């Protein structure tokens, strides 16, 4: 066995001992807090492949402490706001628990409690925001605060935002403060709000509008944007601030994916909906100063970054989402559109020359990121928001002849979806003809998102879908009894066993199968889309559903993923009246079975969270099929006690207006025939 190669003698042993002692001293130096000794030089970890580039930021590794301030500023000065005492931490933790439960007798009691917490937190706001155990309390305080209290918090954070947005815990508090303060800016613009200062404890306190508070925050961050774009924590906060300034919806799916990661903890308060939720799903009105601020941020950021560094950001895990948002704001802002030819912009840095030339720098860049898991997301933004002329050049150069091959790729197919959204009728027809030969391959690999998008765009552009439907039949097989099951990737026998219930008066079925896979979800969405497209595609799915036995249809109605397919099939259209009559008879037999045989289908649906939605769809689709509604209501009335003991059952009882059915049958009939039904409360 070979021996270790090492030097002999006492001198070598002394040298080794001296080296180990020096290493231990270096470790001890690193472990010292800043309060004990000034921070020594740190080894900066630069963004990959950007050493020497102009404007290229460096990133500080996280040191594991609550008061970590990573980044360029953190390297030179890392402010320490102090620690909370044990008694203070215990008080704030208890307050956090009470706010989370939100079990106050009245809103006034809660307001008084909030005022007391704010009084105890006076002068400790920064400590709370930077505390691992109490930062959640600060977020809940922001959620429950009134406009004046939020403005005071802005004042407390003022002058420290540059450090707070880089902090592991305080950055989340800043995000919550920005999001919850956005509606106040909108309300100041759309409503007649008194701008006089409210009574305060300090006579010298000056009234400041929420608009100015946001602008003051921007002034603090000005000059540090290139670094913040790639900071581990500040990049998320910066994106939130940009979205607030732009007026974009805060809770829309496409926006939320840019603002936060899937692992982000959601701070909630029981039985409380923040007022900002009303504004979060819609475009918000913002002052003109915000638009000017965005223009300045984009121009200053681009001016301080080298073109090579901007391209490197395209594939940087942290910098890419920030670059996406900046590029979207640049391309959708009318002010920046006018100046595109005359000034340096993000799009001109990414695509500096004529992309129609195959050997151009722009074409090389696009071809380089189209298959990249991170860079392709930026290409999606370019395709979605680029001016019409530039989009046509990109499409004809990169996608037109390769769209069939790109649709087969797991990464590039998402860019293809964005391309299909912007194609004209003629180009879409050519794309359909190119992709049709690839459909069997896409079906075999359960990649149905491109197929679904083709049906959607064909319906919008009035393109014939007969060839698409034929290709779907060839891909899944011509047997109608298995078409829908193959499309949703479910096994009928397994599904029936998983959703079956015991005989007798069992109140709820056995737990459904595990959470649906992505393939099951996408297959179900494809079937739903085909049902919504008139013609051969909807007829194909309808015929497949009618060939399935009642037990399989009920099992599909009880399973979350396939339940949405059943709901779509029951949705009334101009051409599916005959199909719905047959389909309802297939799901809900005219005669209820006896308990000795099996549990009634109506009861099983009503006691299931997924099945309850199917009953609601049955109610919405019985305006022209009133006899079915009356038959189902009669059977629901026989299970009143069971329904009232179940949450889903109570919702069904309310939506079907069963109290009105039992007391005033005539009024119930008028409401059902007129479809004057209440909205779903789920």
Automatic annotation (TrEMBL):
<dbReference type="GO" id="GO:0003723">
    <property type="term" value="F:RNA binding"/>
</dbReference>
<keyword id="KW-0677">Repeat</keyword>
<dbReference type="GO" id="GO:0000056">
    <property type="term" value="P:ribosomal small subunit export from nucleus"/>
</dbReference>
<dbReference type="InterPro" id="IPR040000">
    <property type="entry name" value="NOP9"/>
</dbReference>
<dbReference type="InterPro" id="IPR001313">
    <property type="entry name" value="Pumilio_RNA-bd_rpt"/>
</dbReference>
<dbReference type="GO" id="GO:0030688">
    <property type="term" value="C:preribosome, small subunit precursor"/>
</dbReference>
<feature type="region of interest" description="Disordered">
    <location>
        <begin position="1"/>
        <end position="79"/>
    </location>
</feature>
<protein>
    <recommendedName>
        <fullName>Nucleolar protein 9</fullName>
    </recommendedName>
</protein>
<dbReference type="InterPro" id="IPR011989">
    <property type="entry name" value="ARM-like"/>
</dbReference>
<dbReference type="GO" id="GO:0000447">
    <property type="term" value="P:endonucleolytic cleavage in ITS1 to separate SSU-rRNA from 5.8S rRNA and LSU-rRNA from tricistronic rRNA transcript (SSU-rRNA, 5.8S rRNA, LSU-rRNA)"/>
</dbReference>
<dbReference type="GO" id="GO:0000480">
    <property type="term" value="P:endonucleolytic cleavage in 5'-ETS of tricistronic rRNA transcript (SSU-rRNA, 5.8S rRNA, LSU-rRNA)"/>
</dbReference>
<dbReference type="GO" id="GO:0030686">
    <property type="term" value="C:90S preribosome"/>
</dbReference>
<dbReference type="GO" id="GO:0000472">
    <property type="term" value="P:endonucleolytic cleavage to generate mature 5'-end of SSU-rRNA from (SSU-rRNA, 5.8S rRNA, LSU-rRNA)"/>
</dbReference>
<feature type="repeat" description="Pumilio">
    <location>
        <begin position="398"/>
        <end position="433"/>
    </location>
</feature>
<dbReference type="Pfam" id="PF22493">
    <property type="entry name" value="PUF_NOP9"/>
</dbReference>
<comment type="function">
    <text>RNA-binding nucleolar protein required for pre-rRNA processing. Involved in production of 18S rRNA and assembly of small ribosomal subunit.</text>
</comment>
<feature type="compositionally biased region" description="Basic residues">
    <location>
        <begin position="1"/>
        <end position="18"/>
    </location>
</feature>
<dbReference type="InterPro" id="IPR016024">
    <property type="entry name" value="ARM-type_fold"/>
</dbReference>
<dbReference type="GO" id="GO:0005730">
    <property type="term" value="C:nucleolus"/>
</dbReference>
């Amino acid at each position: 066995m070979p021996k270790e190669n090492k030097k002999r003698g006492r001198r070598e042993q002394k040298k080794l001992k001296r080296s180990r002692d020096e290493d231990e001293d270096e470790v001890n130096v690193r472990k010292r807090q800043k309060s004990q000794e000034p921070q020594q030089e740190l080894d900066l970890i630069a963004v990959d492949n950007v050493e020497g580039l102009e404007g290229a930021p460096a990133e500080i590794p996280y040191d594991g402490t609550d008061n970590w301030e990573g980044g360029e500023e953190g390297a030179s000065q890392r402010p320490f706001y102090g620690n909370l005492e044990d008694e203070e931490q215990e008080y704030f933790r208890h307050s956090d628990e009470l706010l989370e439960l939100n079990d106050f007798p009245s809103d006034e009691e809660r307001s008084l409690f909030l005022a007391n917490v704010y009084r105890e937190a006076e002068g400790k706001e920064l400590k709370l925001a930077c505390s691992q155990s109490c930062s959640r309390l600060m977020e809940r305080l922001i959620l429950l605060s009134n406009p004046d209290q939020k403005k005071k918090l802005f004042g407390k954070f003022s002058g420290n935002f540059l450090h707070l947005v880089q902090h592991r815990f305080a950055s989340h508090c800043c995000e919550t403060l920005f999001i919850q303060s956005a509606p106040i800016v909108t309300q100041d613009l759309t409503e007649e709000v008194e701008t006089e200062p409210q009574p305060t404890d300090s006579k010298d306190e000056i009234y400041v509008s929420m608009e100015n508070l946001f602008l003051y925050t921007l002034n603090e961050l000005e000059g540090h944007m290139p670094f913040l774009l790639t900071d581990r924590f500040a990049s998320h906060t910066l994106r939130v601030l940009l979205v607030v300034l732009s007026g974009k919806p805060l809770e829309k799916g496409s926006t939320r994916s840019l603002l936060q990661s899937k692992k982000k903890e959601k701070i909630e308060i029981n039985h409380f909906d923040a007022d900002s939720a009303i504004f979060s799903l819609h475009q918000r009105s913002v002052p003109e100063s915000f638009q000017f601020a965005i223009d300045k941020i984009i121009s200053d950021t681009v001016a301080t970054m080298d073109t090579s560094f901007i391209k490197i950001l395209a594939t940087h895990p942290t910098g890419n989402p920030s670059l996406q948002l900046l590029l979207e704001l640049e391309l959708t802002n009318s002010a920046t559109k006018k100046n595109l030819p005359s000034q340096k912009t993000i799009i001109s840095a990414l695509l500096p020359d004529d992309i129609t030339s195959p050997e151009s720098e722009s074409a090389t860049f696009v071809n380089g990121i189209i298959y990249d898991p991170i860079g392709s997301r930026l290409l999606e933004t370019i395709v979605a928001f680029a001016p019409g002329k530039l989009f046509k050049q990109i499409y004809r150069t990169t996608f037109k002849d390769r769209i069939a091959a790109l649709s087969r790729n797991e990464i590039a197919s998402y860019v293809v979806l964005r391309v299909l959204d912007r194609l004209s009728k003629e180009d879409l027809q050519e794309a359909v003809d190119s992709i049709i030969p690839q459909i069997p391959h896409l079906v075999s690999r359960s990649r149905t998102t491109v197929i679904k998008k083709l049906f959607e765009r064909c319906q919008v552009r009035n393109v014939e879908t007969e060839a698409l439907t034929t290709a779907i039949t060839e891909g899944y097989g011509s047997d109608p009894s298995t078409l829908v099951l193959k499309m949703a990737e479910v096994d009928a026998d397994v599904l029936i066993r998983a959703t079956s219930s015991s005989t007798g008066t069992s109140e709820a079925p056995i737990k459904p199968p595990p959470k649906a896979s992505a393939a099951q979800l996408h297959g179900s969405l494809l079937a739903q889309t085909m049902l919504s497209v008139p013609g051969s595609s909807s007829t194909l799915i309808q015929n497949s559903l009618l060939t399935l036995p009642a037990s399989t249809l009920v099992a599909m109605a009880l399973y979350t993923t396939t339940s949405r397919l059943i709901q779509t099939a029951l949705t009334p259209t101009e051409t599916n009246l005959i199909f719905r009559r047959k389909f309802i008879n297939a799901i809900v037999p005219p005669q209820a079975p006896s308990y000795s045989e099996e549990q009634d289908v109506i009861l099983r649906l009503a006691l299931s969270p997924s099945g309850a939605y199917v009953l609601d769809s049955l109610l919405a689709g019985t305006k022209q099929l009133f006899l079915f509604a009356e038959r189902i209501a009669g059977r629901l009335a026989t299970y009143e006690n069971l329904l009232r003991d179940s949450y889903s059952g109570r919702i069904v009882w309310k939506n079907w207006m069963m109290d009105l059915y039992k007391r005033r049958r005539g009024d119930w009939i008028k409401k059902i025939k007129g479809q004057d039904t209440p909205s779903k409360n789920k």
